[in-house]
């Protein structure tokens, strides 16, 4: 199959090479000088993305502002190789996959903000219950494919780095305010300046909504989120012999969202996909996130730099949500009730508010109360030199990291009468899950980059030493006295090599590589990590105004790990299990063309992106807790669309901008299988169109108007955690931007 993917790419490269006109405009990525990367960036520009030896994508500040999205799912739509499934409709807790990695809670990709790991506990509990607010980001970088050794620990699919607003070069103030459907509001303001030796940037963002779902008792189903970021930088004079700078970043955010795990049955979804059952009226997520980053950049001569960052992320959250129902002393999970509403009619009647509870009936609401800590220090040394025919770049990086997840949970019991829930039993904190999982990790890498004429090679290797542990105090010891304590530990040592290449012709480049994929195991004793060998081969081209990229990838898993997440219908233990050998392969296509390339007054860029992802288990097994179901050899992985297509078109003329984006997301299965997807295991395909417009009244005032889901498509985005869940319906939002 690797040959099948490689052949069309090679043929296209040869065709384009042979079709060169006598006078061509060469690719801008060939003869430009090397771009100096910033301390918080992977790529830093589209130029670097085009010259990477592996597949990479850079979403620029201009592209981010086209639609003023606060939803990362929508922001990533145009990136080939990215597979997402939604959950809440607003992108608060996304499920992101890169090249077929398991998308659940984005836990199998390396997530970063400003080059620092940003998942709540990246090693011990990486599920992204916290995700940075995309509305305050300046740029987004996506790295896939070969030579990922710089960014770990998750190296199979790739890395996603979000770059927050940087300290400006001169004084500026910005205000963006909008309001629209579902009583959704947003206010975003920034101020910053740079003097000779000092710079600062202060930013605040609030966005909120009443939600688009209809709770049976009429209460709010929306959210309110605040985000504050401050940066302060001190730097030496520009002509200093040893130039250096120190930047302190502070970030605080909180969120109150009336979100639930409880979805809808097939019948109820068909009647009203936006209904919320009365049994979820007490569900609420409360979070706080605090970050400190201190970054020091030291220039050691013209061609050498040393960048060191110390960081601390503290995240607290309590998701108070319905978990199970007891009728006549027998308990059923909400997932079972929604999947079998006829067989479990009495339970369904309670949770939907159709009947009242009695003394032997109860709705259990679990307080998933957890605190996460992620802290460490990382440094990288970069040295660059050149000869008359070659350019050399050597990078050495190290990181020491500690993280933990502290679960201190409890379960309260409620009754329901005439659709209103009332507290029956209020239990003590720590009487449910009562344990701490932790991880200590030392990692280091070296990457060497050689440019010789038109050829670039980047061999590298990463080393990870990880100690994973768990201390369980038990539900009978909420004081944590240690009377019934149990512990376990797992250790991992791994080398992760990779090599990539890129060869430039006049208007075509050929790139590819091979690297080892890795994902850490859990703290279960003796559990092995997820490992794979990953290949890619691609071409980038520019011809007669058409530019683009075509890539084939092939990921050969020797040991795929699945995770027991409540978000995907499991028990929520986070224990991992061995899914054995799996093949994930596919093709990514990206095409860009400007219909008005000869007209300097108007720009009409068109972009088309397509991703084909094919997966296949190479062995049979039965996963515990019905997470993936019973798996047979030849089955496909769940939660991954085989076909994804994104098309975008814009018209930019003087003071006006109009942007249209369309996304086709193919159907996917929610349990492993092959052939046609059973109706009760299928999430149907959908097409969603978004529109963004801007009118610049003058240099300081811009009026914006956006429409989401123009066709008012009513579609399901998932069947997990417990039942069908809808995407956002048609919505209109208007706003005003002030900039000085």
UniProtKB/TrEMBL annotation:
Record InterPro entries: Beta-barrel_TonB, Beta-barrel_TonB_sf, Plug_dom, Plug_dom_sf, TonB-dep_rcpt-like
UniProt protein name: TonB-dependent receptor
Leader sequence residues: 1-18
Residue ranges constituting the TonB-dependent receptor plug domain according to the UniProt record: 52-159
Family: Belongs to the TonB-dependent receptor family.
Keyword line: Cell outer membrane, Membrane, Receptor, Signal, TonB box, Transmembrane, Transmembrane beta strand, Transport
Membrane topology: Multi-pass membrane protein
SUPFAM superfamilies: Porins (SSF56935)
Broad class of where this protein is predominantly found: membrane
Limits of the TonB-dependent receptor-like beta-barrel domain: 312-710
Membrane-spanning ranges: none
Organism: Maribacter flavus
Pfam families: Plug, TonB_dep_Rec_b-barrel
Subcellular location: Cell outer membrane
């Amino acid at each position: 199959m690797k040959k099948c993917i490689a052949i069309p790419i090679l043929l296209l490269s040869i065709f384009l090479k042979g079709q060169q006109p006598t006078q061509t405009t060469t690719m801008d990525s060939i003869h430009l000088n090397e771009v100096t990367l910033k301390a918080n960036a992977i790529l830093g520009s589209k130029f670097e993305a085009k010259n990477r030896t592996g597949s990479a994508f850079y979403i620029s500040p201009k592209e981010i502002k086209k639609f003023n999205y606060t939803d990362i799912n929508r922001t990533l739509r145009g990136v080939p190789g990215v597979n997402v499934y939604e959950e809440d409709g607003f992108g608060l807790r996304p499920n992101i996959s890169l090249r077929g990695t398991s998308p659940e809670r984005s836990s199998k990709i390396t997530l970063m903000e400003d080059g620092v790991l940003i998942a709540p506990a990246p090693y011990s509990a990486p599920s992204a219950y916290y995700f940075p607010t995309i509305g305050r980001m300046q740029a987004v970088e996506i790295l896939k494919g070969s030579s990922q050794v710089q960014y770990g620990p998750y190296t199979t699919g790739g890395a996603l780095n979000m770059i927050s607003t940087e300290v400006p070069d001169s004084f500026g103030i910005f205000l963006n305010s909008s309001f629209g459907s579902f009583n959704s509001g947003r206010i975003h303001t920034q101020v910053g300046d740079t003097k000779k030796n000092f710079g600062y940037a202060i930013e605040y963002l609030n966005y909120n909504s009443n939600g688009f779902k209809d709770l049976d008792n009429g209460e709010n189903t929306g959210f309110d989120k605040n985000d504050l970021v401050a940066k302060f930088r001190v730097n030496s004079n520009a002509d200093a012999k040893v130039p250096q700078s120190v930047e302190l970043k502070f970030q605080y955010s909180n969120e109150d969202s009336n979100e639930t795990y409880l979805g809808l049955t097939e019948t109820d979804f068909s009647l009203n996909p936006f209904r919320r059952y009365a049994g979820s009226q007490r569900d609420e997520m409360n979070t706080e996130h605090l970050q400190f980053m201190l970054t020091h950049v030291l220039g050691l001569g013209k061609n050498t730099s040393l960048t060191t960052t110390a960081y601390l992320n503290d995240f607290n959250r309590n998701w108070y949500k319905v978990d199970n129902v007891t009728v006549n002393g027998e308990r059923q999970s909400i997932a079972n009730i929604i999947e079998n509403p006829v067989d479990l009619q009495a339970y369904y009647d309670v949770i939907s508010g159709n009947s009242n509870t009695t003394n032997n009936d109860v709705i259990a609401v679990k307080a998933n109360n957890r605190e996460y800590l992620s802290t460490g220090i990382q440094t990288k040394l970069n040295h660059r030199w050149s000869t008359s025919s070659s350019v050399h770049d050597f990078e050495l990086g190290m990181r020491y990291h500690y993280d933990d997840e502290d679960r201190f949970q409890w379960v309260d019991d409620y009754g329901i009468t005439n659709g209103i829930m009332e507290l029956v039993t209020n239990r003590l904190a720590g009487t449910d899950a009562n344990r701490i999982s932790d991880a200590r990790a030392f990692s280091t890498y070296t990457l060497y980059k050689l440019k010789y004429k038109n050829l670039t090679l980047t061999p590298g290797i990463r080393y990870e030493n990880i100690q994973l542990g768990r201390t369980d105090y038990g539900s009978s010891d909420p004081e944590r006295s240690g009377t019934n304590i149990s512990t376990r530990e797992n250790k991992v040592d791994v080398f992760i090599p990779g090599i990539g290449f890129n060869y430039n012709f006049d208007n075509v480049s050929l790139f590819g590589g091979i690297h080892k994929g890795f994902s850490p195991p859990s703290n279960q004793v003796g559990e092995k990590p997820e490992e794979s060998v990953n290949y890619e081969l691609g071409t980038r081209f520019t011809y007669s105004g058409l530019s683009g990229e075509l890539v084939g990838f092939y990921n050969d898993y020797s040991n795929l790990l699945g995770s027991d997440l409540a978000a995907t219908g499991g028990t929520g233990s986070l224990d991992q299990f061995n899914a054995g050998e799996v093949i994930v392969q596919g093709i990514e296509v990206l095409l860009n063309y400007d219909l008005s390339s000869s007209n300097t007054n108007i720009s009409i860029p068109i972009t088309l992106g397509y991703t084909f992802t094919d997966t296949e288990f190479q062995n049979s097994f039965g996963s515990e807790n019905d997470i993936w179901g019973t798996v047979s050899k030849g089955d496909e992985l769940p939660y991954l669309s085989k076909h994804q297509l994104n098309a975008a078109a814009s018209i930019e003329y003087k003071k006006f901008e109009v942007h249209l984006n369309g996304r086709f997301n193919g159907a996917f299965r929610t349990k492993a299988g092959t052939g046609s997807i059973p109706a009760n295991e299928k999430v149907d395909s959908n097409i969603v169109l978004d529109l963004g417009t801007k009118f610049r009244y003058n240099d300081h005032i811009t009026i914006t108007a956006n429409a989401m889901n123009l066709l008012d498509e009513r579609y399901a985005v998932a069947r997990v955690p417990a039942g069908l869940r809808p995407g956002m319906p048609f919505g209109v939002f208007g706003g005003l931007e002030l900039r000085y």
